[in-house]
Amino acid sequence: MDFTATHGLRWRDPGVERVPAPADLARWFIEAGLTAMPVPVSASTHRSALELREALYRLMRGRVSQEPLDRRAIDVVNGWAAKAPPAVQLTADGSAKRLVEPTAGKLLTVVARDGVDLLGGPHADRLRECSRDTCTLLYLDTSRAGSRRWCSMEACGSRHKMARYRRRDAV
Asked: Residue 97's beta-bridge partner residues?
């Protein structure tokens, strides 16, 4: 889901692209914790990554709004998920795993498989879209009651509450 957030403010045209170049995608792989080492990203892999991101977003958004899922988006995600992921190994002390020779394509396979696991798993009904009018972020509602409304309380939730307070105080 974090990958879908690399395109922000979707309600605006064209929105905010947070990985506008291949180098930005390479940096995102590290920041997302998919790899500790930089991987080269070609222009064509970057374009494919954006296509995968938008397919994942359409599928997750469709799930949230309970609309029929986009067949083309399913094909894109399944195409990536069917590819071989990076090999993993235990570290010398056996406490962690590390990726063996990760490539951008193999890391996108991990992202696609995570999307398949989420969309086809038991938590798919906990997918939500932020309730704030100007936010289009998707999140997984892990609250006990399943009633979370905002992508984060620190950002959208507190802004909503402050706006509500100001409207009430102005009366």
From this structure: 90
